[in-house]
Specification:
It is a single chain. With about 300 residues, the protein is an alpha/beta fold. The chain is built from 9 helices and 10 strands. It has a domain of about 150 residues: Alpha-Beta Complex (Spore Coat Polysaccharide Biosynthesis Protein SpsA, Chain A). Strand 6 and strand 7 form a beta hairpin.
Length: about 300
């Protein structure tokens, strides 16, 4: 136990795994790809996986770390976010409680995964009795907003993301609502770096489809390197969460990683993290109450 185990949800955007798996591969002890056994999204739409992807996976997996976990991840009686949460819960059980359970979405690319592993090892004591001492480890996403011909637009404000937990009592997607430990670990998030057709398909089939901001596409379509400074409030759910955009003059992910590492202002300060972690410590100190685990009674059939 106490392994570094990484889980990915494999769906219609499976090709993005070719970018998100390599950064975590060397430091991970085991990697799972959760794939619905009938290849359905959380809303029940079918998708195909080209055989070439499995060929790539076999050739890439030189250390035999990667396992595809197939199960029934679509329950029609549940809505999309409930199916999302349920799949993550089942995947985490497969990954094994007692290990560090890291869940990364296919469109999230770690910058410096080795650093994140060192962060987790600093907190290994929480793996001894995880149910009694549940925590979740958070980092931050730099969200790619739109690819342009000679660069890309990104959201200037990094956003929190839950990356790992010792006990997968998920309430909504990756959120367990337990004590959060904030860390200065950053990922690139290719959430919107797709064609309009791909985006519309995504928004119809993900866990927050019922919360979508219908004004999003108007701003997204007109944004370019000349007007991006004038475009405000761009988030696809609550617009004000993404207040402003920035511009990278390259689309090369390795070059972007170097830019981010060389620019600490793109990440949160140590003082910011200190305040957040002190707040979480006192919020949860002595306030733990017995909480019911997430249950999907009657929905674990065929798993």
């Amino acid at each position: 136990m106490k392994n570094i185990v990484v889980g990915f949800l494999m769906s219609y955007d499976y090709e993005k795994l070719k970018l998100s798996i390599p950064p975590v591969y060397d430091q991970a002890d085991k990697i799972y790809l959760a794939l619905d056994h009938k290849q359905r999204t959380w809303t029940g739409m079918s998708f195909e996986v080209d055989h070439s992807f499995f060929e790539w996976l076999t050739s890439f997996d030189k250390d035999n770390k990667i396992e595809i976990y197939r199960a029934d991840f679509y329950i029609p009686e549940l809505n999309a976010i409930q199916n999302d949460t349920r799949e993550r819960h089942l995947l985490a059980l497969k990954m094994g409680i007692g290990n560090w359970l890291i869940q990364v979405d296919s469109d999230e690319i770690f910058i410096g995964f080795e650093k994140f592993v060192k962060t987790l090892r600093h907190h290994d004591k929480y793996l001894d009795n995880p149910k009694e001492n549940p925590i979740q480890i958070a980092g931050f996403l730099i969200n790619i907003y739109k690819y342009l011909e000679d660069g890309l637009l990104y959201v200037k404000q990094p956003t929190k993301v839950f990356l790992a937990t010792n006990y997968p009592n998920y309430k909504t997607a990756r959120k367990t609502k337990e004590r959060i430990i904030y860390t200065n670990n950053v990922l690139l998030h290719e959430c919107l770096s797709r064609t309009e057709e791909e985006l519309r398909f995504k928004f119809k089939n993900w866990g927050h489809s019922h919360q979508f901001n219908n004004q999003f596409f108007d701003k997204w379509k007109k944004a370019n390197k000349n007007n991006y400074k004038t475009i405000k409030n761009t988030f696809y759910l609550d617009p004000k969460l993404w207040k402003s955009l920035g511009y990278f003059n390259t689309k090369d992910l390795k070059k972007i990683e170097k830019i981010i590492k060389a620019n600490p202002r793109m990440c949160h300060s140590k003082f910011y993290l200190f305040k957040k972690n002190i707040g979480q410590y006192f919020k949860h100190l002595g306030l733990f109450k017995k909480k019911k685990d997430v249950k999907f009674e009657g929905y674990f059939k065929n798993d």
